[in-house]
């Protein structure tokens, strides 16, 4: 069992561990962690661009909820779609073409199952990728940009600025959407519940957290060895922890990439525990 680092050293130790993790696995890794309880943080490549992949669906769901909060749309509105709208990996929307789905159901499918058609249908109500980018700007995020829809946005070609974000920018969005006032309280709770119900992240960040710690997260994966996980961690006691982890340019299997993200979760939990013991 690792001995807890002193609070002053925990961030530096975590950053060293992330750099070694990146080097050992031959990947490019971006991480931002902010403990709201101690108000301490650590990061690695947090201001560099990484492919978003399906983590954009968190923002899409937030944008739809914000429109409903303002009375500009209704979560009960039924969205009709057909076979031509169905794209790869659509486990929820695929079987429901005949009856359609409400906006609320599409948000849930996009967040909890990462359903790609659901993500595209949400985008269509927001003005497409430019609408999502505009929503990010309205949140104060100057970095995130969405340029394409599913599944083209998952290309993740190295150096391509399209469909990218930074770990710091996405952590800020998590803060505003889930812990701030960007959404009404009921919508904020609804989004948190969807993230907590996510079925796609069990072997990523969540796998590295101690027993009794919960995470509401949104995953993403794409080409060129890209594998992401972002969310809010609720330790057993105290305030939440914001975490965003982006991994790309890996030549390893998806399972091995997931294991790297699980190690990021362990590193984050160790730092948070040290901060809170010393505060």
Task: Describe the 3D structure.
By secondary structure, the protein is an alpha+beta fold. It has a single domain, classed as 3-Layer(aba) Sandwich (Beta-lactamase), CATH 3.40.710. Helices cover 41% and strands 17% of the residues. It contains 8 helices and 9 strands. Strands 2-1-9-8-7 form a 5-stranded antiparallel beta sheet, sandwiched between helices. Strands 3-6 form a two-stranded antiparallel ribbon. A two-stranded antiparallel ribbon has the order 4-5. Strand 8 (226-234) and strand 9 form a beta hairpin. It is globular, with a radius of gyration of 18 Å. The mean pLDDT is 97.
Give a quick rundown of the structure.
By secondary structure, the chain is α+β, with helices and mostly antiparallel strands. 41% of the residues lie in helices and 17% in strands.
Oligomer: single chain
Series of secondary-structure elements, N-terminal to C-terminal: HEEEHEEHHHEHHEEEH
Q: Write down the overall mean pLDDT.
A: 97
Low-pLDDT residue spans: none
The beta-strand count equals 9
Rough shape?
Answer: globular
Number of domains as seen in the coordinates: 1
CATH homology superfamily name: DD-peptidase/beta-lactamase superfamily
For the record, the CATH class is Alpha Beta
Helix fraction by DSSP (H/I, runs of at least 4): 40-55%
Share of β-strand residues: 15-25%
Radius of gyration: 18 Å
CATH architecture label: 3-Layer(aba) Sandwich
- Give the N-terminus to C-terminus distance in angstroms: 21 Å
- Count of helical stretches: 8
């Amino acid at each position: 069992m690792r001995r807890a680092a002193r609070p002053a050293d925990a961030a530096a130790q975590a950053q060293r561990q992330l750099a070694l993790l990146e080097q050992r696995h031959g990947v490019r890794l971006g991480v931002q962690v902010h403990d709201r309880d101690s108000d301490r943080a650590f990061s690695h490549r947090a201001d560099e661009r990484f492919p978003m992949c399906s983590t954009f669906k968190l923002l899409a769901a937030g944008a739809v909820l914000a429109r409903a909060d303002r009375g500009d749309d209704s979560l009960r509105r039924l969205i009709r779609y057909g076979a031509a709208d169905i794209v790869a990996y659509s486990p929820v929307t695929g079987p429901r073409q005949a009856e359609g789905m409400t906006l609320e159901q599409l948000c849930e499918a996009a967040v909890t199952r990462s359903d790609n058609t659901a993500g595209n249908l949400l985008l269509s109500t927001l003005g497409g990728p430019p609408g999502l980018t505009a929503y990010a700007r309205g949140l104060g995020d100057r970095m995130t940009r969405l340029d394409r829809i599913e599944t083209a946005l998952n290309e993740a070609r190295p150096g391509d600025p399209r469909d990218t974000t930074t770990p710091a920018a996405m952590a800020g969005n998590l803060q505003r959407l889930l812990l701030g006032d960007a959404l009404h309280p009921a919508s904020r709770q609804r989004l948190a519940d969807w993230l907590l119900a996510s079925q796609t992240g069990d072997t990523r960040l969540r796998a590295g957290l101690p027993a009794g710690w919960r995470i509401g997260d949104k995953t993403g994966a794409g080409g060129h060895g890209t594998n992401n996980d972002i969310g809010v961690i609720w330790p057993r006691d105290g305030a939440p922890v914001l975490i965003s982890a982006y991994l790309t340019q890996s030549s390893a299997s998806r399972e091995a990439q997931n294991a790297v993200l699980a190690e990021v979760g362990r590193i984050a939990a160790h730092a948070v525990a040290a901060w809170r013991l010393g505060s």
